[in-house]
Amino acid sequence: MDRRRFLGQAGLGIGMAALAELLQRDLFAQGTAAGIEGALPGFPQFAPKAKRVIYLFQSGAPSQLDLFDYKPQLAKVQGTDLPESIRNGQRLTAMTAAQTSLPVAQSIFKFAQYGQSGAWLSELLPHTAKIADDLCFIRSIHTEQINHDPAVTFAQTGFQLAGRPSLGAWVSYGLGTLNQDLPAFVVMITGNGQSLAERQWGTGFLPSKYQGVKLRSVGDPVLYVSNPSGFETSQRARFIEDLGKLNQLEYDVTQNPEIATRIAQYEMAFRMQSSVPELTDLSKEPEHTFELYGPDSRKPGTYAANCLLARRLAERGVRFIQLYHRAWDHHSGLPKAIRTTCQQVDQPSAGLIQDLKERGLLDDTLVIWAGEFGRTVYSQGKLTADDYGRDHHPRAFTIWMAGGGVKPGITLGETDDYGYNITADPVHIHDLNATVLRCLGIDHTRLTYKYQGRNFRLTDTGGRVFQKALL
Q1: How many secondary structure helices (H) and strands (E) does the chain include?
Q2: For 166, phi and psi rounded to 5 degrees?
Q3: Which domains can be identified in the chain, with CATH numbers?
Q4: Which tens digit of pLDDT belongs to each residue from 92-124?
Q5: Could you read off the pLDDT of 196-223 as tens digits, one per residue?
């Protein structure tokens, strides 16, 4: 290369770098002007398709074989023992390890194709079927964890042991908040099933101000937000101001970031005294809205009511909204139990997508419907013509996503004829989390926090963006 060509190309490279820097500054300035506060410098790295996330976590593990992953070939091998060539030495849980056989159990529910996309769905999900063309189904999710607690922890924090920040905490840390009167990260829980731990929406080693705030359905929506009896709002305002001054004096001496968090959280709690009652007051919602989410949407503490609250939180700029529904742990009596759970979940989940779409919010809201793992093709316990159970299955399960930069009306990933092993487009939990961050404009390898001498990230040392799912 001669000197003239070298200098010419070098000049072009410098110009492109300068342009990129100017565009990045412009993007960041737009974010600041839009009311974003607390974002890391340089975040987001890309123009985001999604401003917020609603994560509908189906705790307990829905059976993909009875809902999404249609396997008509199973009728030919019904009741026969699962071939070792399919199982291939997979670890079993303690609940089926002692079984003398692992009989194949086809789903007793009817499947059909819906929408222009032709997505296969079970008769258990009639409302989800109506919005099939808005959804991206991924039938090839997999994880290493085979028991509930480590699997939920892994799905939510990227690590099976306690101590890592949750997905919502990472997003709040990287992108900041869009609403000064509500937390950036809100959590709601319904159902009775496997227990959940606060670490699953916690901050780990991140500052505690990124912790998910749990909304309750009984009493005050948030603990300790209301004033005590006889304590006026004006008194509370003076108290918060004076307490902030005392905490600031301590912070000036120690520079402890947790003191700064304490100051900010007291101030947030004071603002929430007016923002939370307004948020949870559904009296002004039109009748059409309740019809969309189903009859349970009028009952506080139900999954349907929380889906409606999720839309209201999204409207108000909450960055990350996490719903947990604990009702999917169907080790026995699955046909009866899964009918009940689908009646609780199907219409509200579909109603949320329709509601967001009607209000113009779906394009920049990423909605995720997922559990911690799937369910086995073989029956746990006795198999009969109309009854069976299913054990934990981490090798292959189905989720769906919608909005926020995800391709609608598409089904990705394939499994074998037993629905046991992935045969195309495997998507690891780290890959899913990397893809979620990409929708928010974040390079998952650059969202890090230094702790104990190491830069940690949500996707640990793995993760790749699943580009086939993105627009």
Answers
A1: 12, 17
A2: -80, 165
A3: 45-224+289-469 (3.40.720.10)
A4: 999 999 999 999 999 999 999 999 999 999 999
A5: 999 999 999 999 889 999 998 766 676 6
